[in-house]
Design a protein that fits this description.
The chain contains 15 helices and 13 strands. The protein is of the alpha/beta class. It folds into three domains: 105 residues, NAD(P)-binding Rossmann-like Domain (Rossmann fold), CATH 3.40.50.720; 160 residues, Rossmann fold (3-Layer(aba) Sandwich), CATH 3.40.50; 73 residues, Ribosomal Protein S8, Chain: A, domain 1. A six-stranded parallel β-sheet has the order 7-6-8-9-10-11, with helices on both faces. A five-stranded parallel β-sheet has the order 2-1-3-4-5, with helices on both faces. Helix 4 packs across helix 12. The N and C termini lie far apart (47 Å).
């Protein structure tokens, strides 16, 4: 069999070589001619898997090593008998880390006590659930909005979007991009959304660019309907609106889920799904060679620091979102290059803290965040 693999997918080289013919190509060079005699494709979001690419090919299975799958024409695949899979939750811990870093940065800048604030989480799937857990560990009041889950599970743990608009000091978006239907999320944060806000919240978008309407959020920042905007996902990437960039509090080039751990997990899920489909015997395959962080073991002295300040130091040691913001603002035209050459970022469990002068209750929070002590 023959497998076409996007050459930007990390840790995958060597996975299939003993059981298949493997061709590594940049996503942009995955053409109809290339896939014509392929049995499977392993891809990322930059390869559009639709009729134009797949018609007349022998492709039977597509695995995308990403959470999102709007680059796959699922209707066409169903009609053509092509199975597909994504990697749900693969980078959810990475986005959790991104949100935690953003919260600590704005808390430091604005003098916020997070345990006195309310955060509204819109979309409570793999990512939103982990963000909710972190926010509860930080002592925040957490409001959850997820209409599909509410219909399936009942209303007890969920609130309306209106309630979040009225009560949240911070709103973070973690929904898929749905263009139509009762759960449509395209331009969810548009003029109507912003006009209904009550507390001038911080708004964070780390899901899909099209969930936030560019012109509407620019107006919301200028008019003070929101206190500030933290943006990782943009409409029309990589050709983003530069005025919006200037108006954002923190701006990053769609890298919230770019930890090495998240990428490795997405690759693992893709390899194992193809193996299961074709019976290749790789169901227990695991990636190797994941890079270590620069300082995986670090001392943390809590003398004179509040609980929040201690936790902030730990989180920002693993990832300081301000570094990505500075790199991006320096040259926004390098949007794709910054993603492609993204530096090593490891999640909390890759780090060990050597603590001094830290109370047991704070150590327990650090442990629950995933740190080794």
């Amino acid at each position: 069999m023959k497998i076409i693999i996007d050459d930007k997918i990390p840790y995958i080289r060597g996975a299939f070589e003993e059981v298949a013919e493997v061709v590594y190509l940049p996503g942009a060079k995955t053409t109809p001619e290339v896939v014509k005699d392929a049995d499977a494709i392993v891809t990322r979001t930059r390869t559009i898997c639709n009729e134009k690419l797949l018609a007349g090919s022998s492709v039977k299975f597509i695995a995308t090593a990403t959470i999102g799958f709007d680059h796959i024409d699922t209707n066409y695949c169903r009609q053509a008998g092509i199975k597909w899979t994504n990697a749900p939750g693969c980078n959810s811990k990475s986005v959790e880390q991104y949100i935690a870093s953003a919260l600590m940065v704005i808390a430091e800048k604005y003098g916020l006590e997070l345990n006195k604030l309310c955060i509204g989480i819109v979309g409570v799937g793999n990512v939103g659930s982990k963000v909710a857990r972190v926010c509860r560990l930080l002592g925040m009041r957490v409001l959850l909005n997820d209409p599909p889950r509410e219909r399936n599970e009942g209303p007890e743990q969920f609130v309306s979007l209106k309630t979040i608009q009225e009560e949240a000091d911070i709103i973070t978006l973690h929904v898929p991009l749905n263009l139509k239907g009762e759960d449509a999320t395209f331009h969810l944060a548009g003029e109507v959304f912003f006009s209904g806000l009550n507390r001038k919240p911080f708004l964070i978008n780390s899901c899909r660019g099209e969930v936030v309407k560019t012109e509407a959020v620019k107006s919301a920042v200028k008019s003070g309907q929101i206190r500030s905007f933290i943006c990782d996902c943009w409409e029309n990437e990589p050709d983003i609106d530069l005025e919006l960039l200037d108006l954002t509090e923190i701006a990053t080039p769609h890298i919230a889920g770019y930890s090495k751990d998240g990428k490795a997990t997405g690759t693992e899920m893709s390899v194992q799904s193809i193996s299961k489909f074709f019976g290749l015997g790789l169901e227990n395959w695991r990636p190797s060679g994941i890079e270590l962080p620069e300082k995986p073991v670090f001392e943390l002295d809590g003398a004179g620091l509040s609980k929040q300040q201690i936790i902030s130091k730990a989180i920002l040691h693993t990832y300081d979102i301000r570094d990505d913001d500075a790199s991006f603002r320096k040259d926004p035209s390098k949007f794709e290059q910054l993603r492609g050459d993204y530096p090593v970022r490891r999640e909390f469990p890759a780090f060990t803290i050597v603590p001094t002068n830290i109370k047991p209750e704070t150590l327990e929070v650090l442990r629950n965040l995933g740190f080794n002590l």
